Amino acid sequence: MRSFRLVLVEPEGKINFGFILRLARNFNISDICVVRPRFDLTDSEVLEFAAGGAEAVKYCRVCENVDECLEDVRVSICTTSKVGSEKDVLRQGVPINALRYVLPSEGVIAIVFGRESVGLTREELSKCDIISTIPLKSEYNVMNLSHAVALYLYELSRTESPENQKLTVGAECNKNTFKAILGLVREISTASDEPEEVFIALRHVLARASLTKPECSILYRFLKKLAYELGLKACTCPNAQ
């Protein structure tokens, strides 16, 4: 079974946050993680603009960093208005309307939003499996935070419809195997001249690939063998398929 987690990094506006709580109620989101908010989440102004969604504040937990919010997720999606640079591997993104084709049908899916003023840092973006954006024809593509949250929650809610099937058929790669594969990719990337860039590129590719259980199994064994041949400390993951 799939569920969605809303991650908000250092939100700055009480009114915006109130609108987001209202959206959480609209879309039945009961898993909200807030990193270092710049105000009291129960402030009267927040609750006023949350209107009928004010009760969603009880679903919020406050953390010190993004890592804490992503600890148990299956796939993490970081949102940004800046994607597509030919020379920037970190900002190779998936448009919002294509997410339905790459997300697994089980596990927690985290959708991460940055600050109203500057968005997410490069370090924060590097922690996500998928980078995503909202393509706009306008030259000004930076949206208000609550508006962006509304669009993503609506689009993600559409992935629950029968007509929005994934690209692959069959049993999916489970969370433990996927994380084990990423661990091996991290190890193997150290053998390259650009370890961080190689890891980020392969992480994005694997997250978008809609891997099946047999594919993950053979990929895990191959990468483990490759790490051994390279003389690296391959991770042993007993829960991997």
Commentary on this structure:
This protein is of the alpha/beta class. It is globular. It has a 7-stranded parallel sheet with strand order 3-2-1-6-4-7-5. Strand 1 (2-9), helix 1 (14-26) and strand 2 (32-35) form a beta-alpha-beta unit. It contains 8 helices and 7 strands; from the N terminus they run βαβαβαβββαβαααα. It has 2 domains: 2-158, 3-Layer(aba) Sandwich (Alpha/beta knot), CATH 3.40.1280.10; 175-229, no CATH class. The model has no long low-confidence stretch (mean pLDDT 91). Helix 1 runs parallel beside helix 2, helix 6 packs antiparallel against helix 7 and helix 6 (175-189) runs parallel beside helix 8. The protein has helices at residues 14-26, 44-50, 66-69, 122-125, 145-158, 175-189, 195-208, 213-229, and strands at 2-9, 32-35, 60-63, 75-79, 94-95, 107-113, 130-133.
Task: Based on the model shown, name its key terms.
single chain, 241 residues, alpha/beta, Alpha/beta knot, seven-stranded parallel sheet
Chain-wise SSE layout:
Blueprint: E1 2-9, H1 14-26, E2 32-35, H2 44-50, E3 60-63, H3 66-69, E4 75-79, E5 94-95, E6 107-113, H4 122-125, E7 130-133, H5 145-158, H6 175-189, H7 195-208, H8 213-229
Parallel strand pairs: 1-2, 1-6, 2-3, 4-6, 4-7, 5-7
Helix pairs in contact: 1-2, 1-5, 6-7, 6-8
Q: From the coordinates shown, what is the CATH architecture of the largest domain? A: 3-Layer(aba) Sandwich
Tally of structural domains: 2
CA radius of gyration is: 19 Å
The CATH topology of the largest domain is Alpha/beta knot
Quickly give the structural class. Answer: alpha/beta
N- to C-terminal distance: 19 Å
Number of strands: 7
CATH class of the largest domain: Alpha Beta
What sequence of helices (H) and strands (E) makes up the elements?
A: EHEHEHEEEHEHHHH
